[in-house]
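User: I would dearly like some help making sense of a protein record. I have put the entry right below:
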Amino acid sequence: MFAPLNTQPALTGPSVRTVDDERRDLLRAAIMKGAPPAQVDLVCAISRRYGLDPLLQHVVLIDGRPYVTHKGLMHLAHASGRFDGMETTFGEDGGGAWAECVVHRKDMARPFRARIYLSEYNKGRGAWATHPRAMAAKTVESFCLRRAFDVSLVSQEEMGRGDPAAAEVAEREALPPGHDSDWKEAAQAFSAAVAALSPDDRRALKTELTARHGHCDFRRFTADELDVITAEIYASDS
C-alpha cells in the first residue's frame, strides 16, 4: 500500500528532506513528470483513501485530473477480501452491441450488474478501433467494480482514457531523460524497499550512498545501480 504522506510543515528546517519528499520526487520523475505539487498531493490523498498505489498506476493524472484505473480497481477488489468473482459477457439487442459485467461480493446476497453499449464508448480511435471487445470489457468491469466497492472516482476506461498505445507513449514521455522502462521498474522497487525502512535506517542509507557515490539522489542512479542498492537493502534486513 502507498504509505501515508505527511502534510505537516517540517520542523527541522528546509534543508532536511523526508521520505514523503522522496516519494513525491519519484512520482513526478517516473510517473507524473511536470505535475504541480498540488496535483501530486491530490493523487496521494486519493490513493490513501482507497488503499491504492500511484507508483503502480492504480491512480493516474490525465490533463491534470485524477482517474482510477482498471488495475487499481482490481487491486482494491482483491485486497478487500470480499471479492467473490466477476463475469463479463457480450450480446446485442435493439440498442446495439453491449458488454455486461456482474460482480459478486461475499458479504452481499445479490450481485452488482452493469451494462454498456459499445456505440456510446467506441469512437473508432486507438485501441477501440483494433480491440473493441477488450476495451469494452475493461470499461464495463471498471464501471461495475466502482459500484460494488463504492469508489466515487471515475475510471480512465469509462472516460475513454484507456487506450494502451496512448498510455505507453505517455509513460515513455514521463520518464526522465536517458531513462527507460527498466529504470522505472528499478526505481519503483527501490522506492518500495526504502519505504519499508525505519527512519534511522533511511538516514543510514543516505549516508552510505553519499559516501559511496557522492550523492543519494535516486534519479542519478542507473537501473543496474538501483537494482544492486535494492538487493542490499533487503539483504541487510534479512
